[in-house]
Design a protein that fits this description.
It contains nine helices and 17 strands. By secondary structure, the protein is of the alpha/beta class. Helix 4 crosses helix 5 and helix 6 runs parallel beside helix 9. The N terminus is likely disordered. It binds flavin-adenine dinucleotide (FAD).
């Protein structure tokens, strides 16, 4: 009797599961294509978005099916950017032009992107982890009730077809693979410099106009837009970057790194704890998943431990030189030159030598 009951329960559950799984698979399989949010800033498509179109093409090749790379333009008078998107690899461009979208607002842009996704059913959505994208991606994911992996350091398609988003976890000590198995689309945000854009090739394609009602929040009103006129030397322009980690110890000691960068004609970068501690006041100097990705000819890492959150932002640097007093510091695993020492002795000697040469 007991066995019979168990058997019935098992069959009943199984029958229900089979039906649900079929519905579920049909629903999941109705999502195809890879959609990239093409961010426009100062009337120019962001490099980050062009890189993501390149990445979408790489994923499409791994998918090995007839997926399309769709670029979504949202703004006012943004349709004109479609040729740029085709040139960098988009198969189709969806343009949502509306005067209400002239200035970025998370409520309106979130509604617009969510509506585009509902209409085009992409399997994957890629958004640049810019200041704007870092707000828009979760807003859209919440509207669509789907998953988002923020600040991914890599994207993969496994042999079984599973789309996989790689995100540093546990303070950057491990890289976690994120799957979104039961919801579509799968949304990922990625920083500039982590993926690569394709070489520009003149090509045309289909541009589809898109429109929907935009409600927004009544209480929200843009009063003024102020541009960040940061004049400090950008990390992207510098051939040499002197990066300090929390092991520097204090704001007073940090000034030595500023002097060293000046003498080398380079720029200063930092890890997150240094920014949090207020030793540097330039937010754009933070390198890593929540900061910028850099590609200098030379990266000099001083008292930086080498957490994956940071090193994912330096992987395309030319020469990587690191100074750390701990011979087992993870930064050494990706360094070309390793100096195991108290940084103070090395930095003081370097500053003196450079001053003498001048
Ligand atoms: C979601 C999330 C996102 C993050 N994003 C970023 C990011 O974008 N960028 C980023 O940098 N971090 C980021 N972090 C933090 C990151 O995980 C690490 O905690 C951080 O990078 C460590 O910074 P650090 O190496 O400066 O400090 P620590 O880990 O404290 O390392 C200090 C190092 O200095 C060495 N040292 C100490 N004294 C000396 C000395 N006198 N001489 C030589 N060496 C010395 C030590 O041996 C140690 O290796 C993020 C974390 C999370 C959770």
């Amino acid at each position: 009797m007991e066995i019979q009951e168990k058997k019935n329960i098992y069959v009943g559950v199984q029958t229900t599961q089979v039906r649900d799984i079929r519905d579920f698979m049909m629903e999941i399989n109705s999502y195809k294509n890879i959609l990239v949010f093409a961010e426009v800033n100062d009337d120019k498509v962001c490099d980050n978005s062009l890189e993501l179109i390149g990445e979408a093409n790489r994923l499409k090749a791994m998918r090995n099916n007839d997926s399309l790379v769709i670029a979504a333009l949202i703004g006012n008078n943004v349709k004109k950017h479609a040729p740029t998107l085709f040139g960098y690899g988009a198969d189709k461009v969806v343009a949502f032009d509306n005067p209400k979208l002239e200035i970025y607002r998370s409520d309106l842009y979130g509604e617009a992107l969510a509506a585009i996704v509902r209409n085009y059913h992409p399997e994957i959505v890629l958004v640049g982890a810019t200041a704007l994208g870092s707000e828009l991606a979760p807003t859209t994911a919440a509207k669509l009730r789907t998953g988002l992996a923020a600040h991914c350091t890599a994207l993969k398609i496994l042999e079984n077809g599973q789309f996989t988003q790689v995100v540093p976890a546990f303070g950057g000590k491990v890289l976690g693979d994120i799957y979104i198995p039961n919801h579509r689309p799968q949304i990922a945000s990625i920083k500039a410099g982590i993926t690569k854009k394709l070489e520009y090739k003149e090509k045309s394609g289909v541009v589809e106009d898109f429109s929907c009602e935009l409600k927004g929040f009544d209480r929200m009103k843009v009063v003024k837009v102020e541009k960040d006129t940061e004049t400090k030397k950008s990390l992207n322009d510098a051939d040499c970057i002197v990066v300090g980690g929390f092991g520097i110890g204090s704001k007073e000691e940090w000034t030595k790194l500023e002097e060293l960068a000046r003498l080398l004609g380079g720029a200063n970068g930092c890890t997150r704890p240094v920014l949090d501690a207020g030793w540097i006041d330039n937010e754009k100097a933070m390198i890593g998943t929540s900061g910028v990705a850099v590609r200098p000819k030379a990266y000099l890492g001083i008292a930086v431990s080498g957490a994956a959150h940071h090193t994912c932002g330096i992987k395309d640097s030319g020469l990587i030189i690191s100074i750390n007093k701990d011979e087992h510091a993870p930064i050494f695993a990706c360094s070309d030159y390793k100096v195991v020492a108290d940084y103070k002795k090395i930095v003081d000697a370097l500053i003196e030598e450079l001053k003498n040469r001048k």
